Amino acid sequence: MIKEIYRNKLVWIVIFIQVAFTYQVWASNTDRVLLISSYNSSFPTYFQQIEGIKSVLDSLEIQLDIESLDSKRFNDSIIYKLNGQLLSHKLSKGLKYKAIIVSDDNALDFILQRQERLFKGVPIVFLGVNDINKAIIQNQNPLITGVGEMVSMEETINVMLKLFPEKKQLYVISDATKTGKVDLENFTDVIKKYEGVEVFTVSLENFSFEEMGYVLQQVDEEVPVLLLSALQDKNGNTMDFYSSLKLVKAHLKSPLFHLFQHGMGRGILGGKLVSHYEQGKSAAIIVSRLLYGEDISNIKVQYESLNHYEFDYYELEKYNVDKSLLPSTSVIINMPDNVFYKYRKTIILILCFLLVQLAIIVLLIINVRRKRKAQKDLVDQVSEYQSLNEEYVSLNEQYQSINEELNTKNNDLLAAEEELRANLEELAESNRAFEISEERFKLAAEASNNGVWDWNLITNEVYFSPVWKQILGYEDDELLNVFETWKDNMYEEDVNEALAHIDKYIKGESVIYRTEFRMKHKNGKLKNILSQGLMMRDSNGKAYRMIGSHEDLTSRYHYEENLKAQIEENLSLYEEYKTISEELILKNEALIKSEDIVKRNYKALEEKTQQLIESEEKYRLLFNNINEAFALHEIITDDNDNPTDFIYRDVNPVFLKNVGLRYEDLVGKKATELFPGIKLTWIDRYGKVALTGQSDYFLDHSSKLGKSYDVHVFCPKTGFFGAIFKDVTETLKAEKELMAERERISYVLEGTKAGTWDWDIEKDEIVINERWANIIGYKKDEVGILSYREWMKSLHEDDIIRISSTLGKVFSREIDYYDVEYRQKHKNGNYLWLHARGDIMEWTGLGKPLRMCGIHLDITSRKEAELKVIESEKRFKTIFDKSRTIMVLVNPATLQIVDVNDSAILFYGYTKEEFLKLTGLDIAVLSFDELRVKIRVALEKGKNYFSTKHKLKSGEIRNVDIYLSLIDVDHKKMLHIIIIDTTKAVEAEYQLRKVNQRFIGLENIIHYSANSINDLLDFTLKQVIDYTQSDTGAVYHYDEDKNLFVLNNFSNDVRLSLTFDSGNNINNLDCLSRAVRLKEAVIINDPKSSYPFIKEETADKFGAYKSIAIPVLENDKVVSIFWLGSKTNQYSKFHVEQVMLLLETAWILVERQRLQDQNKLV
After folding, report:
1. pLDDT value at position 869?
2. What phi and psi values does residue 204 have, to the nearest 5 degrees?
């Protein structure tokens, strides 16, 4: 670690020298950089940041000026404003800066508010910013970049729980400073990942320093504590960091962790710490790049962690911490001098070097000895090969001379007799082998779960296995083994199509025979049958035999139908719930809009109503300025002082505008002249005011003008009256609309079955309407006016805290309106589900709520429907989890596995936690594109399933059928996958196919005309290679006397000979030697290396082969080995059994050929 630190420092020094050297060419002594710090000199990180910055800028001879905001001690708007004014004043004196550095979140906020005004065009670099989102957003600002302060919260918590795991508890200390809040939010997000860990928060936002000390005294000494920030308490009192650290340590007996380097050595145990020196250094390097000419927009915000693990030795000893549990890269300060510990890495390296040297020496000695032995063995083997070769040449010459003599003899008759006798014996042996094979076939058919049938197309003989008949409900002796049995028991509608499939397969028009049809069970019900088979043809391609199986698919079809029905039921319930929910939302929105309109109209009416006529004296003084129509009249009376008319003495412009006359046409004229139809009752009413001095107020409508007026009549002096005409046409119209709106709201409330409530918060009185009371089974008179406490008593106890919390958020304006669902007791004792919405209508001047209004709706039916949906989902979940069928839920958008049942866990071998980290492609053998093709082909055939292969955790590959359907889970579309393991069925089908292939290979070997034993063995090897789908193979003859394997014929892949390995450990022997030792077949499917008889060029090209070595025995002695190799295919005991059957027949032919060769020699 120390070397790495020195190496990093050396790299930085080289970079700094290069930058400084280049910069000296053009930099001047007057270049300045300004640092704006959020803190003051008493804060511990203040000088660490400055030292980091100066470590770079001093080498470039850049002058660093520093401005301190002191925001940790004085975090208020006045100080911010004064700091801004002071900095502005300084800059106005001509100070120019090449770049600005700001430290911590407060300084960044300060500079962002003043960037355009004070630092336009100047590059800005920040450091120590905790709010990473805010830091990253600055990538969009073309003149700002910097270094984010990534605290290692999760890593430090991991260390705390690892070193002190006993209690599974954590304490965290924080305060109300901006940095403290950000760190606490970060801590809260991270700690959610730790299930079972109990967390206690000691926040100075709620405690004083004294109260915090008392709380810390109660902490158990085995419970670790994380210090985030403790600089300001709830009373606004502040402390510098070291004073607050001293206070914490004075009351705390538990281990204390921190996220920052300051405080180390003063009672903090450690953590993964932020180094403010490195922060300052990184920021200064960015500034140097800018001064060098690099464009700031090309330098993105850095937020990678610069942190390191650091611990105090004394604190580790104090709490008996096992140092082996510390992260390997940890730095331990205050470590006492210890020669071994100080130079432990060097000592360990020297010891490792010596051990490696010793191992090399030993290996060299062993290698020299092996080389000498190999040289000796090679010399012996070469001489042996030379003698063998000479012997082989001599024998070959003798064989050629004898063969020439035999060819001259014309003994065709004897040869023919011998050949005929041999053919008869061969035929008898073949018949016996065939009978054995037929017996094995019947035993396999009886052991299978599927029904097996065998149809001889030549004789029309049919064999149906007992299981075939059991599928239809019959015993073995109840159905005849004739073709009509199959045809008569088939469902009539499917007969023609099934026969057509067979006809096409016999004619060779289709490659495989695989079809589905229905057959009649003994009880009268229909069974869904999957029929598949293979054809045997002669050398002319004519079909002579057909073998196949029947699989009962009825239970699978029933399961699919039940599953579809369940899914359709779930979808139906979901659509019903969705429709109800949408209707309620629409009705609720309409009601809210109606309420808003009523409020606005009511307010408008109230404002206009307040515009009443004031005193008569005031209206006389404001005659010409009044906004309403005004007219002054003189009353005319008869001799009995009865009013008969009145004269217009003065009018204002508004009056003239309303009547449509000019001033001179109106003033001085009598009313009866101007308005001949005027009613005498009006003259009497006006006269009463003019003569008695009593004011009057009434509503008048002018049909001529088509307007309505509020008329206020008063008497300025005896015989005169003044009239103010207020046009209320629009007001009356608004009142009518308001009444209509109220009527509509009433209809809406009645239509939505909503109850209304009006809460006078100051008086604690809740007024309700009739519907509100009816919902809970009462009449309005029975309920009366409620108090808040009385209302709360009727609520379900589980809902009270949630309702109180929501109301508190509305009162504090954290949320815009009140919206909550809760349960309230009905008169009959049951609880109903209600949905309430409301808002504050009036507030006090101090921002306290006065009045709140709203509605509530009965949503019991909807809730019951939701519960039914939840129950349905629970039933599905229970069926899903406990079903014996393998099931998986997959997100169709991402293919992420979101749930699996117990059967899937048992089948695949993954735990549920491991499963949820996988995608569907992680367990599939095929690629996504290959799977998509399979699904498309299945859909085109009208099927909802397809066959493929899946990979288990163990690496085993299994054959599966996949059934897909799209369902809703928690209101999300999920892919429901049913997986059927078909490995055994596929294996049975494969084995049946292999048996047929073996028959074909056997027939080929029997009819092969061999030139020699070697020729016959080579032909047999080719048949075996084809049958097992191997890539290569060889036949070795084994000479027990010489312990030597000799190849039957030349091969490009294997060596001509190999010495038998007689080692004691049989597991270390090659497969040929092991087969000789065991006298049985050896299967190797996980080769660790290539075999010694494989040529080097073949081994380099193909690597290690999976292989099978099968010995051929005569008189209990191994005489030959058949070896097969494959790069990909796995071998099994089934391969051994089938190949052995082929070799038994082949060896009979070898003995016959050997007899023929001997006769020829005679």
Report:
1. 67
2. -70, -5
Task: State how beta strands 818-825 and 831-843 pair.
Answer: antiparallel
Q: What is the CATH number of the domain that holds 506?
A: 3.30.450.20
Angle, helices 554-609/860-882, rounded to nearest 10 degrees? 150
CA 288 – CA 339 distance, rounded (Å) = 41
Distances (CA, A) of 152 to 4, 267, 306, 310, 475: 21, 20, 10, 12, 75
Tokens of 712: 């206020």
d(CA 587, CA 551): 57
CA 426/CA 423 separation, integer angstroms: 5
622 and 694 fall within a common domain: yes
Residue 1140: CATH number of its domain: 3.30.450.40
Q: How far apart are CA 1089 and CA 740, in angstroms?
A: 95
185: tokens are: 């939010």
DSSP per residue, 562-629:
HHHHHHHHHHHHHHHHHHHHHHHHHHHHHHHHHHHHHHHHHHHHHHHHT-----HHHHHHTTTT-SSE
**Co-location of 121 and 180 in the same domain:** no
Nearest to 866 by CA among 571, 573, 588, 587: 573
Quick one: 1026 and 1147 in the same domain?
yes
SS3 for 83? helix
Residue 435 lies in a domain: no
CA atoms within 13 A on the CB side of 424: 5
pTM of the model: 0.31
Among 101, 118, 148, the domain-final residue is 148
596 domain residue, yes or no: no
- In Å, what is the CA distance from 646 to each residue of 246, 635, 703? 97, 4, 21
Residue type for position 983: T
CATH number at residue 171: 3.40.50.2300
Whether 364 is covered by a domain: the verdict is: no
Per-residue pLDDT tens for 1084-1114? 888 877 788 887 777 766 677 888 999 988 8
The whole-angstrom separation of Cα 861 and Cα 583 is 13
Give the residue ranges of DSSP H helices in 821-899. 860-882
* Residue the block writes with tokens 């009995």: 640
Strand ranges for 739-860 from DSSP E? 755-760, 765-768, 818-825, 831-843, 849-858
Q: Is the pLDDT of residue 266 over 80?
A: yes
Cα separation, 751 vs 584, in Å, equals: 11
Q: Are 977 and 1003 within one domain?
A: no
Are 114 and 160 part of one and the same domain? no
- Take residue 608 and report the two structure tokens written for it: 């206009």
pLDDT of residue 146 exceeding 90 = yes
- C-beta separation of 768 from 755 below 8 A: yes
Angstrom distance (rounded) from CA 235 to CA 993:
88
Whether 562 is covered by a domain: the verdict is no
CA-nearest of 812, 836, 839 to 824 is: 836
CB atoms within 10 A of CB 901: 21
Domain that holds residue 547: 449-551
Which of 699, 734, 769 terminates a domain? The answer is: 734
What is the three-state SS of 391-434? HHHHHHHHHHHHHHHHHHCCCHHHHHHHHHHHHHHHHHHHHHHH
The pLDDT tens digits of the residues spanning 571-625 come to: 565 556 556 656 656 656 665 665 566 566 556 545 544 544 444 455 455 556 6
Q: Are residues 222 and 140 in the same domain?
A: no
Please give the Cα distance from 1111 to 1144 (Å, whole number): 11
**CB contact set of 885 (below 8 Å; sequence gap of 6+):** 559, 903, 978, 979, 980
Mark whether 970 and 994 lie in a shared domain: no
What is the pLDDT at residue 1020?
A: 81
- Please indicate, yes or no, whether residues 1015 and 1152 belong to a single structural domain of this protein: yes
Domain count, the chain: 7
